[in-house]
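This part of the workshop introduces the protein records we will be handling. A record pairs a protein's sequence with a compact description of its fold. As an example, a complete record with its sequence and its C-alpha coordinates follows.

_____
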Amino acid sequence: MVRSNTTLRKELVSHFSAKGELLRREWVRRMQAKGLLEGLTPDEIEIESGVLCTIVLECVETGRYDPALAYAHLKAKQGVLGGRTPEQIIDRLALLHDVYRQSLFKRYRGEVDRLAKLLDLYAPVAHRLQTLITLTFVEERERMSKREMNQLRMLIRAGMILSAKLSLEEVLQRIVNMACKLMSAKYAALGVLDGKGGLSRFITAGIDETARQAIGPPPVGKGILGVLVREGKPLRLKNLTADPRAHGFPPHHPAMHSFLGVPVVSKGKVRGNLYVTEKQGAAEFSEEDETLAITLATQAAIALENASLYEELRRSYDELKQSQQLLVRQEKLASLGRLAAGLAHELNNPLSSVAGFAEALQRRVETAEIGDLAALAEWRQYVTMIQDEVARAATIVRRLLDFARQREPTFSLVDLYDVALHAVSFVERQASLENQRIVVAPFPDRSVVQADAQMLQQVFLNLLTNALDAIESGGEIRIDAYHRQEAVDPAGEQRWLDVFVSDTGSGISPDNLSRVFDPFFTTKEVGKGTGLGLAISQSIVEQHKGSIEVRSRGIGKGTVVIVSLPLADRSEIDGKRPDLPGMEGKDGSRG
Protein backbone atom coordinates (compact mmCIF):
# COMPACT_ATOMS: atom_id res chain seq x y z
CA MET A 1 0.00 0.00 0.00
CA VAL A 2 2.88 2.37 0.89
CA ARG A 3 4.63 1.57 -2.36
CA SER A 4 1.41 2.15 -4.29
CA ASN A 5 0.91 5.57 -2.63
CA THR A 6 4.52 6.51 -3.38
CA THR A 7 4.03 5.66 -7.06
CA LEU A 8 0.76 7.63 -7.20
CA ARG A 9 2.38 10.61 -5.45
CA LYS A 10 5.22 10.64 -8.01
CA GLU A 11 2.68 10.47 -10.83
CA LEU A 12 0.71 13.35 -9.30
CA VAL A 13 3.85 15.49 -8.90
CA SER A 14 4.94 14.67 -12.46
CA HIS A 15 1.55 15.72 -13.86
CA PHE A 16 1.42 19.02 -11.91
CA SER A 17 5.07 19.81 -12.74
CA ALA A 18 4.58 19.23 -16.46
CA LYS A 19 1.44 21.39 -16.53
CA GLY A 20 2.67 23.89 -13.91
CA GLU A 21 2.84 27.09 -15.93
CA LEU A 22 -0.37 26.35 -17.85
CA LEU A 23 -2.23 25.67 -14.59
CA ARG A 24 -0.83 28.83 -12.97
CA ARG A 25 -1.93 31.01 -15.90
CA GLU A 26 -5.39 29.44 -15.91
CA TRP A 27 -5.67 30.10 -12.16
CA VAL A 28 -4.66 33.78 -12.60
CA ARG A 29 -7.11 34.17 -15.47
CA ARG A 30 -10.00 32.80 -13.42
CA MET A 31 -9.10 34.99 -10.40
CA GLN A 32 -9.02 38.05 -12.64
CA ALA A 33 -12.40 37.13 -14.11
CA LYS A 34 -13.86 36.98 -10.61
CA GLY A 35 -12.19 40.23 -9.47
CA LEU A 36 -10.06 38.50 -6.84
CA LEU A 37 -6.81 40.26 -7.77
CA GLU A 38 -7.88 43.86 -7.27
CA GLY A 39 -5.22 45.90 -5.46
CA LEU A 40 -2.30 43.74 -6.63
CA THR A 41 0.22 44.83 -9.27
CA PRO A 42 1.09 42.55 -12.22
CA ASP A 43 4.47 41.79 -10.61
CA GLU A 44 2.82 40.88 -7.30
CA ILE A 45 0.35 38.62 -9.12
CA GLU A 46 3.19 36.88 -10.99
CA ILE A 47 5.30 36.35 -7.87
CA GLU A 48 2.51 35.39 -5.46
CA SER A 49 0.82 32.94 -7.83
CA GLY A 50 4.16 31.31 -8.74
CA VAL A 51 5.26 30.92 -5.11
CA LEU A 52 1.92 29.48 -4.02
CA CYS A 53 1.88 26.96 -6.90
CA THR A 54 5.40 25.89 -5.93
CA ILE A 55 4.32 25.42 -2.30
CA VAL A 56 1.32 23.30 -3.35
CA LEU A 57 3.62 21.07 -5.43
CA GLU A 58 6.10 20.73 -2.54
CA CYS A 59 3.33 19.78 -0.11
CA VAL A 60 2.04 17.12 -2.54
CA GLU A 61 5.55 15.74 -3.07
CA THR A 62 6.87 15.72 0.53
CA GLY A 63 3.72 15.73 2.67
CA ARG A 64 5.37 18.48 4.78
CA TYR A 65 3.76 21.86 5.38
CA ASP A 66 6.58 23.86 7.04
CA PRO A 67 7.26 26.05 3.95
CA ALA A 68 3.52 26.75 3.63
CA LEU A 69 3.32 27.76 7.29
CA ALA A 70 6.35 30.11 7.06
CA TYR A 71 4.97 31.69 3.88
CA ALA A 72 1.54 32.14 5.44
CA HIS A 73 2.93 33.95 8.50
CA LEU A 74 5.08 36.27 6.36
CA LYS A 75 2.35 37.25 3.92
CA ALA A 76 -0.31 37.57 6.58
CA LYS A 77 1.80 40.20 8.32
CA GLN A 78 2.26 42.06 5.02
CA GLY A 79 -1.48 41.95 4.35
CA VAL A 80 -0.86 40.62 0.81
CA LEU A 81 -1.58 36.91 1.05
CA GLY A 82 -5.05 36.08 -0.18
CA GLY A 83 -6.23 39.65 -0.75
CA ARG A 84 -8.04 41.93 1.68
CA THR A 85 -10.46 39.53 3.38
CA PRO A 86 -10.42 35.90 4.60
CA GLU A 87 -13.25 35.13 2.16
CA GLN A 88 -10.97 36.09 -0.72
CA ILE A 89 -8.36 33.64 0.53
CA ILE A 90 -10.89 30.83 0.40
CA ASP A 91 -12.09 31.88 -3.05
CA ARG A 92 -8.54 32.03 -4.45
CA LEU A 93 -7.44 28.70 -3.01
CA ALA A 94 -10.75 27.07 -4.01
CA LEU A 95 -10.16 28.24 -7.59
CA LEU A 96 -6.56 26.92 -7.52
CA HIS A 97 -7.62 23.50 -6.30
CA ASP A 98 -10.50 23.45 -8.78
CA VAL A 99 -8.03 24.14 -11.63
CA TYR A 100 -5.85 21.26 -10.40
CA ARG A 101 -8.81 18.90 -10.05
CA GLN A 102 -10.13 19.68 -13.52
CA SER A 103 -6.66 19.03 -14.99
CA LEU A 104 -6.79 15.55 -13.42
CA PHE A 105 -10.30 14.97 -14.80
CA LYS A 106 -9.06 15.94 -18.27
CA ARG A 107 -5.85 13.87 -18.12
CA TYR A 108 -7.44 10.68 -16.73
CA ARG A 109 -10.82 10.86 -18.48
CA GLY A 110 -10.77 7.17 -19.52
CA GLU A 111 -9.19 5.80 -16.30
CA VAL A 112 -11.88 5.97 -13.63
CA ASP A 113 -10.07 3.92 -10.97
CA ARG A 114 -6.75 5.75 -11.48
CA LEU A 115 -8.49 9.13 -11.31
CA ALA A 116 -10.27 8.20 -8.07
CA LYS A 117 -6.98 7.16 -6.42
CA LEU A 118 -5.19 10.35 -7.50
CA LEU A 119 -8.07 12.54 -6.28
CA ASP A 120 -8.12 10.66 -2.97
CA LEU A 121 -4.38 11.42 -2.62
CA TYR A 122 -4.59 15.07 -3.70
CA ALA A 123 -7.77 16.17 -1.88
CA PRO A 124 -6.42 15.85 1.71
CA VAL A 125 -3.27 17.80 0.75
CA ALA A 126 -5.27 20.52 -0.96
CA HIS A 127 -7.69 21.00 1.88
CA ARG A 128 -5.07 20.78 4.60
CA LEU A 129 -3.09 23.46 2.78
CA GLN A 130 -6.20 25.59 2.36
CA THR A 131 -7.03 25.22 6.03
CA LEU A 132 -3.45 25.90 7.14
CA ILE A 133 -2.95 29.09 5.12
CA THR A 134 -6.39 30.45 5.84
CA LEU A 135 -6.26 29.86 9.58
CA THR A 136 -2.74 31.33 9.76
CA PHE A 137 -3.97 34.48 8.06
CA VAL A 138 -6.93 34.65 10.41
CA GLU A 139 -4.74 34.31 13.50
CA GLU A 140 -2.51 37.14 12.30
CA ARG A 141 -5.44 39.52 12.02
CA GLU A 142 -5.92 40.94 15.52
CA ARG A 143 -9.04 42.87 14.56
CA MET A 144 -11.01 39.79 13.47
CA SER A 145 -13.96 39.20 15.76
CA LYS A 146 -15.07 35.87 17.18
CA ARG A 147 -18.06 35.86 14.83
CA GLU A 148 -15.84 36.27 11.75
CA MET A 149 -13.61 33.40 12.88
CA ASN A 150 -16.59 31.12 13.37
CA GLN A 151 -17.87 32.01 9.92
CA LEU A 152 -14.48 31.31 8.35
CA ARG A 153 -14.23 27.89 9.98
CA MET A 154 -17.67 27.01 8.68
CA LEU A 155 -16.72 28.11 5.17
CA ILE A 156 -13.61 25.94 5.33
CA ARG A 157 -15.82 23.08 6.47
CA ALA A 158 -18.05 23.77 3.49
CA GLY A 159 -15.00 23.40 1.23
CA MET A 160 -14.05 20.14 2.90
CA ILE A 161 -17.52 18.78 2.18
CA LEU A 162 -16.57 18.72 -1.51
CA SER A 163 -13.68 16.32 -0.83
CA ALA A 164 -15.76 13.96 1.32
CA LYS A 165 -17.01 10.76 -0.28
CA LEU A 166 -20.64 11.87 -0.30
CA SER A 167 -23.37 11.83 -2.90
CA LEU A 168 -24.26 15.08 -4.65
CA GLU A 169 -27.53 15.14 -2.71
CA GLU A 170 -25.68 14.93 0.64
CA VAL A 171 -23.17 17.64 -0.34
CA LEU A 172 -25.92 20.07 -1.38
CA GLN A 173 -27.93 19.31 1.77
CA ARG A 174 -24.94 20.15 3.97
CA ILE A 175 -24.38 23.41 2.08
CA VAL A 176 -28.02 24.38 2.64
CA ASN A 177 -27.80 23.50 6.35
CA MET A 178 -24.63 25.57 6.63
CA ALA A 179 -26.34 28.53 4.94
CA CYS A 180 -28.93 28.55 7.72
CA LYS A 181 -26.24 28.57 10.43
CA LEU A 182 -23.85 31.05 8.81
CA MET A 183 -26.50 33.67 8.04
CA SER A 184 -28.73 33.04 11.07
CA ALA A 185 -31.69 32.18 8.82
CA LYS A 186 -34.75 30.19 9.82
CA TYR A 187 -35.15 28.65 6.36
CA ALA A 188 -32.85 27.91 3.42
CA ALA A 189 -33.22 26.16 0.08
CA LEU A 190 -31.22 25.29 -3.02
CA GLY A 191 -32.81 24.62 -6.39
CA VAL A 192 -30.98 23.00 -9.31
CA LEU A 193 -32.32 23.74 -12.80
CA ASP A 194 -33.12 20.82 -15.09
CA GLY A 195 -32.57 22.77 -18.33
CA LYS A 196 -36.25 22.42 -19.25
CA GLY A 197 -37.69 25.28 -17.22
CA GLY A 198 -38.10 23.27 -14.02
CA LEU A 199 -36.00 21.94 -11.14
CA SER A 200 -34.16 18.63 -11.03
CA ARG A 201 -33.45 19.04 -7.30
CA PHE A 202 -34.93 21.18 -4.56
CA ILE A 203 -33.23 20.87 -1.18
CA THR A 204 -34.44 22.66 1.95
CA ALA A 205 -33.43 23.29 5.56
CA GLY A 206 -35.65 24.44 8.45
CA ILE A 207 -38.80 22.75 7.08
CA ASP A 208 -39.63 19.22 8.26
CA GLU A 209 -40.97 16.45 6.08
CA THR A 210 -44.57 16.92 7.22
CA ALA A 211 -44.51 20.60 6.26
CA ARG A 212 -42.92 19.76 2.88
CA GLN A 213 -45.67 17.27 2.13
CA ALA A 214 -48.33 19.82 3.07
CA ILE A 215 -46.78 22.53 0.86
CA GLY A 216 -46.72 20.26 -2.19
CA PRO A 217 -44.50 20.41 -5.30
CA PRO A 218 -41.37 22.64 -5.34
CA PRO A 219 -41.60 26.17 -6.84
CA VAL A 220 -41.53 26.54 -10.61
CA GLY A 221 -39.59 29.82 -10.66
CA LYS A 222 -42.26 32.29 -11.74
CA GLY A 223 -41.76 34.81 -8.92
CA ILE A 224 -38.68 36.02 -7.05
CA LEU A 225 -36.79 32.79 -7.74
CA GLY A 226 -37.36 33.33 -11.44
CA VAL A 227 -35.82 36.80 -11.10
CA LEU A 228 -32.68 35.24 -9.62
CA VAL A 229 -32.33 32.90 -12.61
CA ARG A 230 -33.09 35.53 -15.26
CA GLU A 231 -30.91 38.32 -13.85
CA GLY A 232 -28.13 36.10 -12.48
CA LYS A 233 -27.20 38.39 -9.59
CA PRO A 234 -27.79 38.49 -5.80
CA LEU A 235 -31.07 39.82 -4.45
CA ARG A 236 -31.77 41.08 -0.89
CA LEU A 237 -35.27 42.01 0.25
CA LYS A 238 -36.46 43.29 3.62
CA ASN A 239 -40.01 42.14 2.97
CA LEU A 240 -40.44 39.46 0.33
CA THR A 241 -44.25 39.71 0.30
CA ALA A 242 -44.18 43.45 -0.47
CA ASP A 243 -42.16 43.05 -3.67
CA PRO A 244 -44.38 43.36 -6.78
CA ARG A 245 -42.47 40.52 -8.52
CA ALA A 246 -43.52 38.03 -5.81
CA HIS A 247 -46.26 35.53 -6.72
CA GLY A 248 -47.25 34.67 -3.15
CA PHE A 249 -47.01 31.34 -1.32
CA PRO A 250 -48.95 28.09 -1.72
CA PRO A 251 -51.30 26.96 1.08
CA HIS A 252 -49.59 25.68 4.28
CA HIS A 253 -46.37 27.50 3.38
CA PRO A 254 -44.70 29.16 6.43
CA ALA A 255 -44.62 32.97 6.53
CA MET A 256 -41.44 34.52 5.09
CA HIS A 257 -40.38 38.18 5.01
CA SER A 258 -36.64 38.90 4.87
CA PHE A 259 -35.02 37.25 1.86
CA LEU A 260 -31.52 36.78 0.44
CA GLY A 261 -30.97 34.85 -2.79
CA VAL A 262 -27.92 34.28 -4.98
CA PRO A 263 -27.58 32.42 -8.29
CA VAL A 264 -25.51 29.23 -8.50
CA VAL A 265 -23.28 29.89 -11.52
CA SER A 266 -20.98 27.38 -13.23
CA LYS A 267 -18.92 28.26 -16.32
CA GLY A 268 -20.89 31.47 -16.78
CA LYS A 269 -24.24 29.68 -16.79
CA VAL A 270 -26.87 29.83 -14.04
CA ARG A 271 -27.35 26.27 -12.78
CA GLY A 272 -29.73 27.08 -9.92
CA ASN A 273 -30.20 29.33 -6.90
CA LEU A 274 -29.45 29.36 -3.18
CA TYR A 275 -31.61 31.43 -0.87
CA VAL A 276 -32.28 32.01 2.82
CA THR A 277 -35.28 33.62 4.49
CA GLU A 278 -36.38 34.89 7.90
CA LYS A 279 -33.19 36.46 9.32
CA GLN A 280 -32.96 35.71 13.04
CA GLY A 281 -31.89 38.60 15.31
CA ALA A 282 -32.22 41.29 12.62
CA ALA A 283 -34.85 42.76 10.30
CA GLU A 284 -32.97 41.89 7.10
CA PHE A 285 -29.89 40.18 5.72
CA SER A 286 -26.66 42.21 5.53
CA GLU A 287 -24.08 42.74 2.81
CA GLU A 288 -21.82 40.41 4.79
CA ASP A 289 -24.51 37.73 4.62
CA GLU A 290 -24.67 38.23 0.87
CA THR A 291 -20.92 37.65 0.59
CA LEU A 292 -21.22 34.43 2.60
CA ALA A 293 -24.13 33.27 0.45
CA ILE A 294 -22.14 33.87 -2.73
CA THR A 295 -19.26 31.81 -1.31
CA LEU A 296 -21.60 28.90 -0.48
CA ALA A 297 -23.22 29.17 -3.91
CA THR A 298 -19.72 28.84 -5.41
CA GLN A 299 -19.21 25.64 -3.40
CA ALA A 300 -22.55 24.34 -4.70
CA ALA A 301 -21.52 25.19 -8.27
CA ILE A 302 -18.25 23.25 -7.83
CA ALA A 303 -20.20 20.27 -6.48
CA LEU A 304 -22.54 20.35 -9.50
CA GLU A 305 -19.60 20.71 -11.89
CA ASN A 306 -17.77 17.80 -10.27
CA ALA A 307 -20.90 15.66 -10.55
CA SER A 308 -21.25 16.65 -14.21
CA LEU A 309 -17.59 15.88 -14.91
CA TYR A 310 -17.85 12.53 -13.17
CA GLU A 311 -20.98 11.63 -15.14
CA GLU A 312 -19.24 12.65 -18.38
CA LEU A 313 -16.21 10.60 -17.37
CA ARG A 314 -18.38 7.57 -16.58
CA ARG A 315 -20.18 7.93 -19.93
CA SER A 316 -16.85 8.20 -21.78
CA TYR A 317 -15.58 5.14 -19.93
CA ASP A 318 -18.67 3.13 -20.92
CA GLU A 319 -18.29 4.20 -24.55
CA LEU A 320 -14.60 3.31 -24.49
CA LYS A 321 -15.39 -0.09 -23.01
CA GLN A 322 -17.97 -0.75 -25.74
CA SER A 323 -15.47 0.31 -28.43
CA GLN A 324 -12.84 -1.98 -26.95
CA GLN A 325 -15.26 -4.90 -26.94
CA LEU A 326 -16.10 -4.17 -30.59
CA LEU A 327 -12.40 -4.10 -31.53
CA VAL A 328 -11.85 -7.43 -29.77
CA ARG A 329 -14.81 -8.89 -31.65
CA GLN A 330 -13.53 -7.55 -35.00
CA GLU A 331 -10.05 -8.91 -34.37
CA LYS A 332 -11.53 -12.30 -33.48
CA LEU A 333 -13.50 -12.35 -36.75
CA ALA A 334 -10.36 -11.29 -38.62
CA SER A 335 -8.52 -14.22 -37.03
CA LEU A 336 -11.29 -16.57 -38.17
CA GLY A 337 -10.92 -15.23 -41.69
CA ARG A 338 -7.17 -15.87 -41.68
CA LEU A 339 -7.77 -19.42 -40.41
CA ALA A 340 -10.55 -20.21 -42.85
CA ALA A 341 -8.35 -21.73 -45.57
CA GLY A 342 -6.58 -24.16 -43.23
CA LEU A 343 -9.79 -25.15 -41.48
CA ALA A 344 -11.49 -25.72 -44.82
CA HIS A 345 -8.83 -28.34 -45.63
CA GLU A 346 -9.23 -29.81 -42.14
CA LEU A 347 -12.99 -30.16 -42.65
CA ASN A 348 -12.51 -31.50 -46.17
CA ASN A 349 -10.61 -34.60 -44.92
CA PRO A 350 -13.39 -36.10 -42.75
CA LEU A 351 -16.02 -35.12 -45.33
CA SER A 352 -14.02 -36.92 -48.09
CA SER A 353 -13.78 -39.97 -45.86
CA VAL A 354 -17.54 -39.93 -45.23
CA ALA A 355 -18.21 -39.62 -48.97
CA GLY A 356 -15.85 -42.55 -49.73
CA PHE A 357 -17.38 -44.86 -47.14
CA ALA A 358 -20.90 -43.94 -48.23
CA GLU A 359 -19.98 -44.75 -51.86
CA ALA A 360 -18.60 -48.14 -50.79
CA LEU A 361 -21.81 -48.91 -48.91
CA GLN A 362 -23.81 -47.91 -51.97
CA ARG A 363 -21.84 -50.39 -54.09
CA ARG A 364 -22.56 -53.17 -51.56
CA VAL A 365 -26.26 -52.42 -51.78
CA GLU A 366 -26.18 -52.54 -55.59
CA THR A 367 -24.33 -55.88 -55.65
CA ALA A 368 -26.73 -57.42 -53.06
CA GLU A 369 -23.91 -58.51 -50.76
CA ILE A 370 -25.79 -57.44 -47.65
CA GLY A 371 -26.60 -60.92 -46.40
CA ASP A 372 -23.01 -62.13 -46.39
CA LEU A 373 -21.48 -62.15 -42.87
CA ALA A 374 -18.17 -60.73 -44.07
CA ALA A 375 -20.05 -57.98 -45.89
CA LEU A 376 -22.03 -57.18 -42.75
CA ALA A 377 -18.78 -56.88 -40.75
CA GLU A 378 -17.42 -54.52 -43.39
CA TRP A 379 -20.64 -52.52 -43.22
CA ARG A 380 -20.23 -52.10 -39.45
CA GLN A 381 -16.65 -50.96 -39.99
CA TYR A 382 -17.71 -48.41 -42.61
CA VAL A 383 -20.59 -47.08 -40.44
CA THR A 384 -18.21 -46.74 -37.44
CA MET A 385 -15.71 -44.83 -39.59
CA ILE A 386 -18.46 -42.56 -40.88
CA GLN A 387 -19.55 -41.82 -37.31
CA ASP A 388 -15.94 -41.09 -36.25
CA GLU A 389 -15.35 -38.72 -39.16
CA VAL A 390 -18.68 -36.92 -38.58
CA ALA A 391 -17.73 -36.47 -34.90
CA ARG A 392 -14.35 -35.13 -36.01
CA ALA A 393 -15.99 -32.58 -38.31
CA ALA A 394 -18.48 -31.63 -35.58
CA THR A 395 -15.59 -31.04 -33.15
CA ILE A 396 -13.91 -28.67 -35.62
CA VAL A 397 -17.13 -26.72 -36.13
CA ARG A 398 -17.79 -26.60 -32.37
CA ARG A 399 -14.31 -25.22 -31.74
CA LEU A 400 -14.94 -22.50 -34.31
CA LEU A 401 -18.30 -21.59 -32.79
CA ASP A 402 -16.85 -21.52 -29.26
CA PHE A 403 -14.09 -19.19 -30.41
CA ALA A 404 -16.45 -16.87 -32.30
CA ARG A 405 -19.14 -16.70 -29.60
CA GLN A 406 -19.48 -13.33 -27.86
CA ARG A 407 -19.84 -13.63 -24.06
CA GLU A 408 -18.85 -12.04 -20.77
CA PRO A 409 -15.42 -13.06 -19.37
CA THR A 410 -15.55 -15.92 -16.87
CA PHE A 411 -12.51 -16.45 -14.65
CA SER A 412 -11.72 -19.92 -13.31
CA LEU A 413 -8.73 -22.24 -12.86
CA VAL A 414 -7.25 -22.88 -16.33
CA ASP A 415 -4.38 -25.16 -17.39
CA LEU A 416 -2.37 -22.94 -19.74
CA TYR A 417 -0.72 -25.89 -21.49
CA ASP A 418 -4.12 -27.03 -22.74
CA VAL A 419 -4.97 -23.47 -23.81
CA ALA A 420 -1.77 -23.35 -25.90
CA LEU A 421 -2.48 -26.77 -27.47
CA HIS A 422 -6.01 -25.72 -28.30
CA ALA A 423 -4.77 -22.54 -30.03
CA VAL A 424 -2.19 -24.59 -31.99
CA SER A 425 -4.94 -26.95 -33.20
CA PHE A 426 -6.52 -24.02 -35.06
CA VAL A 427 -3.41 -23.27 -37.13
CA GLU A 428 -1.46 -26.56 -37.37
CA ARG A 429 -3.16 -27.59 -40.63
CA GLN A 430 -2.37 -24.20 -42.21
CA ALA A 431 1.22 -24.50 -40.96
CA SER A 432 1.66 -27.99 -42.40
CA LEU A 433 0.42 -26.85 -45.80
CA GLU A 434 3.12 -24.16 -45.81
CA ASN A 435 5.79 -26.59 -44.53
CA GLN A 436 5.99 -24.71 -41.23
CA ARG A 437 6.57 -26.44 -37.91
CA ILE A 438 4.99 -25.68 -34.52
CA VAL A 439 6.64 -27.23 -31.44
CA VAL A 440 4.96 -27.05 -28.02
CA ALA A 441 7.30 -28.16 -25.24
CA PRO A 442 5.61 -29.70 -22.17
CA PHE A 443 4.83 -27.05 -19.54
CA PRO A 444 6.02 -27.46 -15.94
CA ASP A 445 3.60 -29.29 -13.66
CA ARG A 446 0.75 -27.17 -12.24
CA SER A 447 0.89 -24.46 -14.89
CA VAL A 448 -2.54 -23.31 -13.76
CA VAL A 449 -3.78 -19.70 -13.65
CA GLN A 450 -6.99 -17.87 -12.75
CA ALA A 451 -8.20 -16.85 -16.20
CA ASP A 452 -10.80 -16.82 -18.92
CA ALA A 453 -9.68 -19.70 -21.14
CA GLN A 454 -11.20 -18.29 -24.33
CA MET A 455 -9.57 -14.87 -23.88
CA LEU A 456 -6.12 -16.43 -23.38
CA GLN A 457 -6.75 -18.71 -26.34
CA GLN A 458 -7.24 -15.59 -28.46
CA VAL A 459 -3.91 -14.21 -27.17
CA PHE A 460 -2.01 -17.33 -28.23
CA LEU A 461 -3.89 -17.52 -31.52
CA ASN A 462 -2.88 -13.90 -32.27
CA LEU A 463 0.76 -14.69 -31.45
CA LEU A 464 0.74 -17.85 -33.58
CA THR A 465 -0.83 -16.18 -36.62
CA ASN A 466 1.69 -13.33 -36.35
CA ALA A 467 4.53 -15.84 -36.19
CA LEU A 468 3.20 -17.85 -39.15
CA ASP A 469 3.02 -14.66 -41.20
CA ALA A 470 6.64 -13.90 -40.28
CA ILE A 471 8.33 -17.26 -41.01
CA GLU A 472 9.03 -18.80 -44.40
CA SER A 473 8.56 -22.36 -45.59
CA GLY A 474 10.65 -24.61 -43.37
CA GLY A 475 10.51 -22.14 -40.47
CA GLU A 476 9.69 -23.06 -36.89
CA ILE A 477 7.60 -21.73 -34.01
CA ARG A 478 8.31 -22.87 -30.44
CA ILE A 479 6.23 -22.50 -27.29
CA ASP A 480 8.14 -23.00 -24.03
CA ALA A 481 7.13 -22.25 -20.45
CA TYR A 482 8.93 -21.76 -17.14
CA HIS A 483 7.97 -21.03 -13.54
CA ARG A 484 9.67 -18.27 -11.56
CA GLN A 485 9.27 -16.69 -8.12
CA GLU A 486 9.30 -13.01 -7.24
CA ALA A 487 9.45 -11.54 -3.73
CA VAL A 488 6.57 -9.12 -3.14
CA ASP A 489 7.24 -8.31 0.53
CA PRO A 490 9.42 -9.69 3.33
CA ALA A 491 6.72 -12.19 4.24
CA GLY A 492 5.69 -13.55 0.86
CA GLU A 493 6.33 -14.15 -2.82
CA GLN A 494 4.45 -14.31 -6.13
CA ARG A 495 4.85 -17.29 -8.45
CA TRP A 496 4.72 -16.55 -12.19
CA LEU A 497 4.32 -18.56 -15.36
CA ASP A 498 6.38 -17.19 -18.28
CA VAL A 499 5.36 -18.50 -21.71
CA PHE A 500 7.83 -17.87 -24.57
CA VAL A 501 6.45 -17.91 -28.14
CA SER A 502 9.50 -17.72 -30.43
CA ASP A 503 9.87 -17.94 -34.19
CA THR A 504 12.64 -18.05 -36.79
CA GLY A 505 10.95 -15.40 -38.89
CA SER A 506 11.75 -11.97 -40.28
CA GLY A 507 12.13 -10.24 -36.89
CA ILE A 508 11.32 -6.63 -35.99
CA SER A 509 13.49 -3.58 -36.54
CA PRO A 510 14.53 -1.57 -33.45
CA ASP A 511 12.56 1.42 -34.75
CA ASN A 512 9.32 -0.59 -34.85
CA LEU A 513 9.85 -2.60 -31.67
CA SER A 514 8.57 0.20 -29.41
CA ARG A 515 5.39 0.55 -31.50
CA VAL A 516 4.23 -3.07 -31.74
CA PHE A 517 1.51 -2.58 -29.10
CA ASP A 518 0.14 0.60 -30.71
CA PRO A 519 -3.40 0.01 -32.04
CA PHE A 520 -3.55 -0.29 -35.86
CA PHE A 521 0.26 -0.40 -36.21
CA THR A 522 1.32 -3.18 -38.60
CA THR A 523 4.19 -3.94 -40.94
CA LYS A 524 2.18 -6.54 -42.88
CA GLU A 525 0.84 -6.09 -46.38
CA VAL A 526 -2.48 -4.28 -46.82
CA GLY A 527 -5.32 -6.70 -46.14
CA LYS A 528 -3.16 -9.19 -44.28
CA GLY A 529 -3.39 -7.69 -40.78
CA THR A 530 -5.51 -5.24 -38.78
CA GLY A 531 -2.76 -3.99 -36.47
CA LEU A 532 -4.93 -4.84 -33.46
CA GLY A 533 -3.69 -8.32 -32.53
CA LEU A 534 -0.91 -7.34 -30.12
CA ALA A 535 -2.80 -4.33 -28.72
CA ILE A 536 -5.77 -6.55 -27.86
CA SER A 537 -3.47 -9.28 -26.54
CA GLN A 538 -1.82 -6.76 -24.23
CA SER A 539 -5.23 -5.60 -22.97
CA ILE A 540 -6.32 -9.19 -22.29
CA VAL A 541 -3.09 -10.10 -20.49
CA GLU A 542 -3.27 -6.97 -18.32
CA GLN A 543 -6.87 -7.86 -17.40
CA HIS A 544 -5.36 -11.10 -16.06
CA LYS A 545 -2.88 -9.05 -13.95
CA GLY A 546 -0.02 -10.16 -16.18
CA SER A 547 2.35 -8.62 -18.72
CA ILE A 548 3.44 -9.20 -22.31
CA GLU A 549 6.80 -8.33 -23.84
CA VAL A 550 8.17 -8.52 -27.40
CA ARG A 551 11.87 -9.05 -28.07
CA SER A 552 13.76 -9.14 -31.36
CA ARG A 553 17.42 -8.72 -32.29
CA GLY A 554 16.48 -7.12 -35.56
CA ILE A 555 15.46 -7.88 -39.14
CA GLY A 556 15.92 -11.54 -40.07
CA LYS A 557 16.71 -12.67 -36.51
CA GLY A 558 13.33 -13.89 -35.33
CA THR A 559 11.02 -12.69 -32.59
CA VAL A 560 10.20 -13.80 -29.04
CA VAL A 561 6.98 -12.85 -27.26
CA ILE A 562 6.87 -13.45 -23.50
CA VAL A 563 3.50 -13.71 -21.76
CA SER A 564 3.78 -13.60 -17.95
CA LEU A 565 0.80 -14.57 -15.79
CA PRO A 566 0.48 -15.06 -12.01
CA LEU A 567 0.18 -18.75 -11.12
CA ALA A 568 -2.82 -19.84 -9.09
CA ASP A 569 -2.24 -20.54 -5.42
CA ARG A 570 -1.40 -24.18 -4.69
CA SER A 571 -4.31 -24.49 -2.28
CA GLU A 572 -6.71 -23.36 -5.05
CA ILE A 573 -5.31 -25.97 -7.45
CA ASP A 574 -5.52 -28.76 -4.87
CA GLY A 575 -9.07 -27.80 -3.95
CA LYS A 576 -10.51 -27.58 -7.47
CA ARG A 577 -9.79 -29.22 -10.82
CA PRO A 578 -8.81 -26.74 -13.57
CA ASP A 579 -11.63 -25.76 -15.92
CA LEU A 580 -10.77 -27.34 -19.27
CA PRO A 581 -13.89 -27.32 -21.47
CA GLY A 582 -12.93 -28.13 -25.06
CA MET A 583 -9.22 -27.87 -24.24
CA GLU A 584 -8.12 -31.48 -24.73
CA GLY A 585 -5.95 -32.63 -27.62
CA LYS A 586 -7.33 -34.56 -30.54
CA ASP A 587 -6.84 -37.87 -28.75
CA GLY A 588 -7.92 -36.46 -25.36
CA SER A 589 -4.33 -36.35 -24.06
CA ARG A 590 -2.07 -33.45 -23.11
CA GLY A 591 0.37 -33.85 -25.93
Observations:
- Confidence is low (pLDDT under 50) at residues 580-591.
